[in-house]
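From: lab user (bench 3)
To: helpdesk
Subject: output format question, protein + thymidine-5'-phosphate

Hello, I'm new to running complex predictions and I'm not sure whether the block I got back is the full result or only part of it. Here's what I submitted:
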Amino acid sequence: MSGFLLTIEGGEGTGKSTLAARLEATLEEKGIEVVLSREPGGTPEGDALRGVLLGHQLAPETELDLLLAGRAHHCVTVVAPALARGAWVILDRFIDSSLAYQAGERPGWNQEVLALSRLAAGEVWPDLTLWLDMDAAKGLSRAKGDASFEQRELSFHNRVRDGYAQIARNDPQRVKRLDIDEMDADAVFEWALNQLEIQ
Ligand code: TMP
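Helpdesk reply: Thanks, we reran it on our side. This is the complete output you should expect:
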């Protein structure tokens, strides 16, 4: 695959979507083809699954199966073809979200979640991951609050954060962390441009 896959990760209310949209605009201004997408979602079928996932409290087993179904379809129909034609793909959440959230709900699931996600994603794997890290309570207070995950207890969201920290420790070359507790959106954007070595 000749394109570049950037994933943006983090807990609730960390401003991932805002950053993703700004990066998309900047890259497009430079004449680069960019596909901005998200998980869950990214396809009409995936958006339908997103509605189920965000609208209901489900068991982590059910969540994982729905997420993987959407991921496989998204990777096969959108992400892999875009990368194959040399485009940049920016994903607002990807495999690391499953590791942080679903394995956060079921400690000890890491290897299984990773293996199943890799099966669903085929050849697709991020070249670079930007982790926007923030105190979980602060992030939750900034989130809309109506989706199923946002309604879970703070202890769950703290485990999600610990999960991301573990992922970053395991793969420091790929996963770059920014502590955004005291940062505004412009500063986060500047940091991301530096990570991407874009002027
Ligand atoms: P979003 O609102 O940031 O787009 O994310 C929707 C929710 O989906 C968010 O609360 C995290 C959750 N999620 C998982 O639990 N596992 C996953 O693999 C993905 C992609 C998202």
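A quick orientation on your result: The chain has one domain: 4-195. Let us know if anything else is unclear.
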